[in-house]
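It would be a great kindness if you could assist me with a short task in structural biology. The matter concerns a single protein, recorded as an amino acid sequence and a row of C-alpha cells. Could you please explain, in whatever detail you think fit, how the C-alpha cells follow from the sequence? Thank you for your consideration; the sequence and its C-alpha cells are set out here:
___
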Amino acid sequence: MRPFLPVVSLAILAGLSLPAFADNAAPTPTISIQGRGEVVAAPDTAGVTAGVTTQGATAREALDANTKAMASLIATLKTAGIEAKDIQTSDFSVNPQYVYPDKDANGVTPPPSITGYIVQNGVSVKIRKLANLGDILDKIVTAGSNTINGVSFSVDDPAKLLDEARKAAFADAAGKAKTYADAAGVGLGTIISISEGSDVSPPQPVMFRAMAAKADAAPVPVEAGQLTFDVNASVVWALKTSSD
C-alpha cells in the first residue's frame, strides 16, 4: 500500500501557496475626491418659544395667575389659526424667591428667607404661514406673554432641496476627479464608494423678496432671511491605466 502522508502534505502546501500568490497581485489604483453641493432656499416655517412668568406670595397664587395667562395665550394662538399639534409645552418651573440678608452685629449672615414664588410656563409654537408671523407675535404679547425666547426659521420639508444639493455635490466631485485623472493620463473606472455629510446653515440676514412687502405691513417687522443646505460627498473611483 502506498503511504498516504505525502499526499496530505502536498495538498496542505498547495493550499498555503494560493493566498501567497494572491498577495503579490498589484492593488487597484483609486482616487478619492470630496465634492460640495449647496442649495439656498427661503424658509416656509417659523418656530417661536413664548411663555408667561408670574409672581406671587405663595406658589399657589403664582401658579393660578400663570395658569390664567397661559390659557389666554393658548386660546389666542388657536384663534390665530395655529393647530393644537403645533403648540407644545416646552418649559414649566416653580421656584422660590429668596432674600439674602446682610451680616448681623456679630458678623454672622442669617439664612436666606423666601419672599415669594415665580412660576414660568412656555410653549413652542410652529407657524406654517410666515405671512402671519408678525401678526401672531403681536397677538402673543397682547395675550399676556412676557417671555419670548427668539424666533427660528426652517423649511418644513427639505428633502427635495437636499436631493438637489446631493446632485450638485456629486457633480462637483466628478468634475474634480476627471481633472485629476486627465492630468495623470488615466481614466475613471467604476465607483467604489460614496458617502455624504449634510448641514443646514442658519438664516442669513437678508429678507427674501417674496416676504418684503408683507413684513413691512405686519405689526411686528419680521425678516425671514434664507437657509443654506450643504451636502458634502466623498466619492472613490477606480482608475483605468494604460495596461487595463
Q: What stands out?
A: The chain is about 35% helix and 35% strand.
